[in-house]
Amino acid sequence: MRKSHPSHNGHEPEAGSSRRHTGTPAGSQSAIAHRIRVLRAEARAVYAEMTAAVLITRREKK
Questions:
Q1: Can you give the pLDDT of all 62 residues of the chain as single tens digits?
Q2: Cα–Cα distance list, 31 to 12, 21, 27 (Å)
Q3: Distance CA 26, CA 15 (A)
């Protein structure tokens, strides 16, 4: 059983987002590649938020 985690913006993932993709192997690979791109974009956004928080914290300490 998989736990659903809220995304970085606090909203629960959509019900269809965890659905398995069926079809041709090429379509499945395309779906996997798309999911990887989405996850990388989310990771970049989280990293940017963390970096901004560190910069703000450093400025407040001065």
A1: 445 555 555 555 555 555 555 555 788 999 999 999 999 999 999 999 999 999 999 999 87
A2: 21, 7, 6
A3: 24
As a residue count, the chain comes to 62
d(CA 6, CA 15): 12
Give φ, ψ of 7 to 5 degrees.
-75, 175
Task: Give the DSSP letter string of 30-41.
Answer: HHHHHHHHHHHH
Residue listed under structure tokens 């990887």: 36
